[in-house]
Model the fold of this input.
Amino acid sequence: MTSDRLLGVLRVLDDENHLLERADQKAVSLLSILGVFMVFFIVYYSVIPVIPFTVALVSIYFLLALLAILNLIMAVRPQIRVTKEEKSKAGAEAPLYDVAFFAGICKFPSLSAYKKSLENMIKDEESLIDEYTRQIFSLAKINSVKYKYLQRSVFLTIIALATELAIIVYLFVNYLGEGAIPGIPVP
Done:
């Protein structure tokens, strides 16, 4: 029967995995939303008058949208850097390969070597807890980076959409003043 310590560790590991999945889902959803609004913008792009004010707003919009997209990509694929100090500390504590993490599993030369190592780890509850604790720590670092980029991209997306809204409001005010609201251009 598994101990309460192991169940607690597995619960934390599960929570970190769920946070990881949610960050990816949020990033993909935000990227989709940004894409939809960009399509609306591109449809009306041809009716935007070329004056300094609108050129500035359009430039700001595209810059913010590009930065938001780059941050969303970094949220989905974060780059985690391990310092030399962390490598030396991990080298003293960590086994040769992580038995329960996909990157470590792939390093085993054969199925039988992996099976033997997994069975040895399962026999010793303390080594099992150590293995999962290392995973929790790694996932927490990944989640920290993912959510940092996700926060930035949310902020940039909101500002980009506000800029797009300012352009739309300007267009309606400008064309209402002239007495004509243009339709969607047909290619």
Notes: The mean pLDDT is 82. The two ends are 69 Å apart (CA to CA). Residues 4-177 form one domain.
